[in-house]
Amino acid sequence: MSFYLELTKNKPAMIGVMIILFLALIAIFAPYIAPYDPLELNLEERLLPPGTDHLMGTDNLGRDVLSRVLTGTRVSLSMSAAVVTIILILGITIGTIAGYFGGVVDDIIMRVVDVLLAFPGIILALVIAGLLGPSLTNVMIALGAIWWVGYSRIIRGSVLSIKEKEFVEAARAMGCSDTYIVIRHILPNVLSPVIVLATLDMGHIILSIAALSFLGLGAQPPVPEWGTMLNEGRPFMESASHLMIFPGLMIMIAVLAFNFVGDGLRDALDPRMREVTIK
Amino acid sequence: MTFLSIQNLNVHFHTEDGAVRAVNGIDLDIEEGEKLGLIGETGCGKTVLGMAILRLLSENTTIKGRILYKGKDLLTMSDREIRRIRGKEIAMIFQNPLSSMNPVLTVGTQVAEPVELHQHLKKQDAMQKVIEMIKSVKIPSPHERAKEYPHEFSGGMRQRAMIAMGLICMPSLIIADEPTTGLDVTIQAQIVELMSEMLRDSGTSMLLITHDLAVAAELCDYIAMMYPGEIVEYASIRDLFKDPKHPYTMGFLDSLPGRGLKPIAGLSPSLINLPVGCKFHPRCSFATKRCKNNRPELIEVGKKHYVRCFLYD
Amino acid sequence: MKKYIARRLAIAIIVMLGASLLSFLLLYLAPGNPAHAILTAQLGHDPSLEEVTFFMTQHDLNNPFLVQCSQWLYMITHVNLGTSFRTGEPVLTEFLDRFPATFELAMASMSIAVLIAIPVGVLSALKQNSMLDHSSRLVALWGVSMPNFWLGLLLILFFSLNLGWFPCFGYGSLSHLVLPAITLGTGLAAPLMRFIRASMLEVLRQDYIRTARSHGLSEGLILWKHSFKNALIPVITYMGMQVGHLLGGAVIIETIFAWPGIGKFLVDAIYARDYPVIQGFVLIIALFFILTNLAVDILYTYLDPRIRYDVEKGTN
């Protein structure tokens, strides 16, 4: 995995890694760092602009925005990580089964994948989350249920190409079971593009969770999710515009960080992307 | 005035791992009508040399020296001037004809390109010339073939198409980069015969870049043996085979199938970490202390026979 | 070639069938009794048992699963997508009424996206590693990372509420179109620009570019004759795939800007649990998406002679 070394040379990627670590720290230590209780109402201090007491101001119920934003980091990162995990497990498992066993199993799985891919992702997630009932868990289920398809296709493709290679035949000749072959020999080879995709998708998923929450279908008040906060701040756009700025900024920073890293990983894995051309 | 004169050419690439010194101080002349074979192993810089002549190298290269064509320095010409020479007076035939042709344009369109550009012909007149050219490179059914795409051609036909592209404007100098590499042996023979025929009567000069000494022997008058970055021997075909002077040349000849396929010990040096002194000394059975520390100059050892070796100094 | 198209069409139809089934099944995702939820929303209070029963009979919700399923499939084949619980109008009518607004937004946004992305992407590739390249890549990355609903809100905040240049919601005039189109358009432009740049770079490093140069072609002519066509082929496929993102983005943008298109209507239907509309709209969108992808596949085959060759030889 010497490409990790290659990654360290990529400045934006390293900045991204640092931001992600920083955000992770915030997420872990949020309860300790937050100056106020993110859920505590204080109706006398509503809609205060950013100031010394409240660095990011207060919202329409007097809650400290900074504390909510910090806690929101915890919500977003943990939810996104959970979704990505679900997606990876589903995608890798189903893709491997389809690729390795081939035949009818493969056909059925691929048709299911095709049907799922026939719907624009966000719209399907929207509908599923909406029908299941607005809640963060349901958003996670919705996203998990549709996002795995891309991964399963990639994994299936890689498995198909590696399946035919000699070392797999050798393993089989030695009497190794199918599961063993898959785990020991095939998976390590197909994981690299998946890692890149998963990193980039973390950003997309954070955005999707925020978007669905913004539409009222995800995190419900009083949970301090960034998208929900933007939605709550909408009626007060003119009088308290600071409510629109900070949560959105956090979403952007988080997504940007993952995109930096994802881009860097992709460039590091693809030697052709290097800037110098020698003929 | 020499037709083409390369003087003290240096070509360096800048990479993350260091400077790649592909061409180091090469002097080479080609007379009008002469056919010179530039022989060397893969990675010795011969393709770089060929491309440098037409300034086809990418931008992160440092090129020093002069390349005089009919007295004018190609390296200091304006863009417009060199474009007038490319394809028309000096043309290049590249290796890998499949990747060297645009997959979404027909072969006919591509063969027509130089002649459309330089002779300002209308589409029909250009296609006329294209069909003639395709015929002369012995591709059957030229009218149908011209409308086909590169991936529909076989390897040998593609190479012929590249030759057609190169010769259609009847250039004075043709640079052919590994025109037979990658082809079946029988096809190779056909290509060699084709090139021999087409060049023989037209008085076109040629710089043939290849690692295949046998092919060069068929097509060339003179040979320049290249070892990473520099010329180590220059002689007529006859002299090279009869009386090779440089140990590398001798080793090269010994490695030919006809002579026993004896390999030269050791590996070609990397162009980033070239040895000090004589570049060949680590692999040379005649190496002395002098060879280790000093770089030999090119010395004349016979009529139009030069060698770069302390054995003769 | 015709066989290829026929085969793809057949697969598309199967997928459409699957999509219809899926959109039907969505109904069953919802917990609780749909009649109950809808009536609660409509009446503002808990409905009585009689009201619920009446509603269910009225809308055939009492029938067993398979019957409902086949009813749905039957309806679809007769181009009947049911009736909205809320408005009482046929779902198809509601869709067609609102489609023009979404189409307008989509066209405006795509135009903006293409007008920005193509020149910037191409120039960025031509002048790789220049100041222009680095800055445009950064801007594009920022554009990809920025939540488009946030951008919309910020634009409203700035240009509408603060500066008063454009209205912040509604439909009707060109100035109503500006902010939503810019929001959606820039969101599309960012990834498109990155893709075009990558595609151009891939083409520019090909050997045949060098061959063209060796013929004496000027850089401009090389660009036009050799680079564009090759670089644009994958871009067209990509844009076909982006239709999905376009629709998804439109949904959110329409909601923010109260743009009376199908996206907003769908979201409203989700809030109100207007199941026929949800089912119907989702199905239509899916069908549209499937057909777009099919069209792109076929177009791609025409544009790239290598694929065309494979197809005609039957290896695809």
Give the % helix of chain C: over 70%
Q: What can be said about the biggest beta sheet of chain C?
A: none
Along the chain, the helix and strand elements of chain C come as HHHHHHHHHHHHH
CATH superfamily of chain A: MetI-like
Count of individual domains of chain A: 1
**What's the Cα radius of gyration of chain A?**
22 Å
| Broad CATH class of chain A | Mainly Alpha
C-alpha termini separation of chain C: 10 Å
Give the tally of β-strands of chain A.
Answer: 0
User: What is the count of DSSP helices of chain A, taking H or I runs of 4+ residues?
Assistant: 10
Largest interface: A-C, 46 and 48 residues
Task: Tell me how many strands of chain C there are.
Answer: 0
Helix and strand content put the structural class of chain A at mainly alpha
Are there runs of chain C of 5+ residues with pLDDT below 50, and where?
none
Class inferred from helices and paired strands of chain C: mainly alpha
Largest sheet entry of chain A: none
Oligomeric description of these chains: heterotrimer
**Which radius of gyration of chain C do the C-alpha atoms yield?**
24 Å
Strand coverage percent of chain C: under 5%
